Amino acid sequence: QVHLVESGGGLVQPGGSLTLSCAASGDIASPFTMAWYRQAPGQQRDLVANVLSSGASIFGVSEKHRFAISRDFARNTVTLQIYNLKPGDTAVYYCQLHENYGAQYWGQGTQVTVSS
């Protein structure tokens, strides 16, 4: 019953920046983690970054300095900012909500394409 809506994807040039947003609604069981994952064609879905219920963040990407994640606990939203985009960032980006003592939910995904 939890619904995640993502926005912000699109076609961008290398070196550019973009912001991805996700809003959660429905009957969410606290505490929960919100996260961004990404998946390129033929590849596994990998963690980009998350924000735990405590407010702490975990980054799955090696180039942590190019990413920023922010969570609004009151609005149940999470935002991912990507800087200095590279072709390797091209993927479908998915928002995830993981209830610590319950289920996990996925958004529909938003396409990010980095190309000149």
Descriptive overview:
The protein is mostly beta strands. Helices cover 0% and strands 53% of the residues. It is built from no helices and 11 strands. Strands 2, 4, 5, 6, 9, 10 and 11 form a 7-stranded mixed beta sheet that branches. The model has no long low-confidence stretch (mean pLDDT 97).
List the helices and strands and how they pair.
Layout: E1 3-7, E2 10-12, E3 18-25, E4 32-39, E5 46-51, E6 57-59, E7 67-72, E8 77-82, E9 91-99, E10 104-106, E11 110-114
Parallel strand pairs: 2-11
Antiparallel strand pairs: 1-3, 3-8, 4-5, 4-9, 5-6, 7-8, 9-10, 9-11
Task: Tag the structure with descriptive keywords.
mainly beta; 11 strands; 116 residues
The average pLDDT is: 97
Spans where pLDDT lies below 50 across 5 or more residues: none
Cα Rg: 14 Å
Distance between the termini: 40 Å
Write down the secondary-structure element order: EEEEEEEEEEE
Helix count from the secondary structure assignment: 0
Estimated structural class: mainly beta
Shape field? globular
The beta-strand count equals 11
Beta fraction: over 45%
Helix content: under 10%
The largest sheet, given as strand count, sense and whether it forms a barrel, is: 7 strands, mixed
